[in-house]
TrEMBL record, chain B:
GO-annotated cellular components: plasma membrane
Name of the molecule in the record: Sodium:solute symporter
Annotated TM spans: 6-28, 49-69, 75-100, 128-149, 169-187, 199-218, 250-267, 288-311, 331-359, 380-399, 405-427, 434-455, 475-497
Molecular functions (GO terms): transmembrane transporter activity
Subcellular location: Membrane
């Protein structure tokens, strides 16, 4: 993920970083649209059925994943800007 | 259930309402620009908002008074099925992350104020642009009306207006005053007014939720008891439950996905987005907006608390205001009601501005007066924002409130049908403009007919938003089924139209427009994952 090749050839559209970004953004869809995976009451958390606290937990997980995607996207942009010789920040 | 006017609560409510009114008028001077008579200034707040203002504005815009009343009300009535609002709002953010920055960039480059502006520029088709604009206006109107329903619910519980124990003109007076004030400051301050008021609204909402989620469960004996009582009620009623039944899972998932896709097709969401200062503001916002989802999840649980607290209301919309009145001391109930009331004003203002912008840009300027100056555009927009609000008011006062709710349900199905033209257009120019119109027409027709055919125990038509998905046999969200049909028709028709060589419209945008950022053209060019062009 951290290897930036020194070669000055056009970078491929699909790079490992971008695959990770895509996975970060797709994960909440898979997890939340697969309702059968969490449609149950146990285990409870402070008296709250699994169904509810699990989905609220996904608010936090999805936020974390979006932050990660955002950081990686910034990194991706930075490395490309440098490679394109612009040097613009 | 207490009857009569709750004086203390009403006093607190009026205090906050007055404070917000002053703020609304003062907003006209906030971040004022030299050229105030342009639609960019009045309708988009000068496109100058940073991360936090945008966050408050979007939160104030998307999480409306109706949300606060309706989501817990759905849980109160049906249990788990109503909780789909939480996955729905979670899924919205990855979607925003993907397509809104592109819309922001291209709109910034070409001075687009509405989604229809973009559609017209991208496809060179006034017809397609008109279709998107009309859908937007049609879908927004009932949404504004529902904000009034939210205020009515609060006034009802406080013992003023709306209820059975009042009559004639007097009962509607508080609502009329609230809306006259709202209309006046929206007219004078534009988008700046709701942006400022959103701070107050969110602060109040967060305080109320934080208190409610700790204070009420303690009074009711903890979540164990709350859920046990709710479960007992659903078992006794033979409907609803703490988890969705296997048959309800498709409905749950399709409602979450369909609603998530639809949310940012609404004109008011786009207005709030385009008012942000830069592309980065939007992406940064996707990382802090989920705070609202967490709040929504906690809020939804209030529906269970209302059951456990023994709140009995015939109109489910009143469940949460009634819970507040029963559980909180009067003064804090007043704060909670103010939160809901102000929660209605912010989105109502933004929605009326968004609908007015659509009318001005895509109907007035495109079809009635093509040579309108920016000052004239602003003037028309201001007047239309008044007309739209007056229309919503008449709607709520003259018709049964179930009409507004039915119509809003249809609005959600309709607005989703603009997705292929808008989001498709942001990533590819492959779709043919006429094919998109055909797809839209099929989606609209199917969605409307299907929703009309849904019966519920209380209604013969528009009894719900889910129906059997043809070919799959599961019950799913009608809007999503219509959307799939829409895409299939658009793809098929595009193949046909390309084969017969139907004239393609002119595209006034260039690939680089979609990645442009604040600052200079062509300086910061980033490549989003989905496209293959190389940087110039």
């Amino acid at each position: 993920m951290s290897d930036t090749p020194e070669v000055r050839e056009p970078e491929p559209v699909v790079t490992p970083v971008r695959v990770v970004i895509a996975l970060c953004l797709v994960a909440p869809f898979v997890a939340l649209l697969w309702v059968d995976s969490y449609a149950r009451t146990d285990p409870t958390f402070i008296g709250m059925p699994f169904f509810y606290w699990y989905q609220m937990l996904w608010v936090l997980l999805s936020t974390g994943l979006t932050v990660l995607a955002y950081r990686l996207w910034q990194y991706d942009r930075r490395t490309r800007t440098v490679r394109d010789g612009g040097g613009a920040r | 259930m207490k009857t009569g006017v709750n004086g203390v609560a009403l006093g607190v409510f009026v205090f906050f309402f007055l404070a917000v009114t002053v703020l609304g008028f003062w907003a006209a001077r906030w971040r004022k620009a030299e050229t105030e008579h342009t639609l960019d200034e009045w309708g988009l707040g000068g496109r100058s908002f940073g991360t936090w203002v945008t966050w408050f504005l979007l939160g104030g815009d998307l999480y409306t008074a109706y949300t606060f009343v309706a989501v817990p009300a759905a849980i109160y009535a049906a249990g788990a099925a109503g909780f789909f609002a939480v996955p729905y709002t979670i899924l919205v953010y990855p979607l925003i992350f993907l397509f809104l920055p592109r819309l922001w960039s291209v709109s910034h480059r070409h001075g687009y104020v509405t989604t229809s502006d973009f559609v017209r520029g991208r496809y060179g088709s006034k017809g397609l642009s008109l279709v998107v604009a009309l859908t937007g206006i049609l879908a927004t109107m009932p949404y504004i009306a529902l904000q009034l329903v939210g205020i009515q619910a609060v006034l009802d519980v406080m013992g003023v207006g709306g209820g059975a124990h009042a009559n004639g003109f007097v009962k509607d007076l508080p609502l009329l005053i609230a809306f006259a004030v709202l209309a006046a400051y929206t007219y004078s301050s534009g988008l700046r007014a709701p942006a400022l008021i959103a701070f107050v609204k969110d602060a109040l909402i967060y305080i109320v939720i934080a208190v409610a989620i700790i204070y009420i469960p303690i009074k009711l004996g903890g979540f164990d008891d709350i859920f046990a009582k709710a479960s007992a009620k659903f078992t006794a009623a033979g409907a609803g439950g703490l988890v969705p039944a296997p048959a309800g899972q498709w409905t749950y998932a399709t409602l979450a996905l369909g609603s998530a896709l639809a949310l940012f097709m609404y004109p008011h969401s786009i207005t709030a987005t385009l008012s942000s200062r830069s592309r980065d503001v939007i992406r940064r916002n996707t990382t802090i907006l989920p705070l609202y989802s967490l709040m929504l999840g906690l809020l939804a649980l209030l529906g269970f608390m209302a059951i456990a607290a023994g709140v009995k209301v015939t109109n489910g919309q009143l469940a949460i205001p009634q819970l507040f009145e029963d559980m909180f001391p009067d003064w804090f109930a007043g704060v909670a009601f103010a939160a809901i009331g102000i929660g209605a004003l912010v989105p109502a203002a933004i929605m009326s501005i968004a609908a007015a912008n659509l009318f001005t840009r895509n109907i007035y300027k495109d079809f009635i007066k093509p040579d309108a100056t920016p000052a004239q555009e602003t003037k028309v927009s201001k007047i239309v924002s008044l007309v739209v609000k007056a229309g919503a008011l008449v709607f709520v006062l003259t018709m049964d409130r179930t009409v507004a709710i039915n119509y809003q349900l249809l609005g959600g199905i309709w607005i989703l049908q603009t997705f292929p033209a808008l989001v498709g257009g942001l990533f590819t120019r492959w779709f043919h403009r006429w094919a998109l119109i055909a797809g839209w027409a099929v989606g609209m027709a199917y969605g409307t007919v299907a929703a009309y055919g849904v019966a519920s125990p209380t209604q013969a038509h528009f009894g719900g938003s889910s129906k059997e998905i043809p070919g799959i046999g599961e019950i799913g969200y009608i809007g999503l089924t219509a959307f799939v049909l829409n895409v299939v028709v658009a793809v098929a028709a595009t193949f046909v139209l390309r084969a017969v060589g139907a004239p393609d419209g002119t595209d006034e945008t260039r690939p680089a427009d979609y990645t442009a950022d604040a600052g200079d053209p062509d300086v910061e060019v980033e490549l989003p994952p989905a496209t293959a062009q190389s940087a110039p």
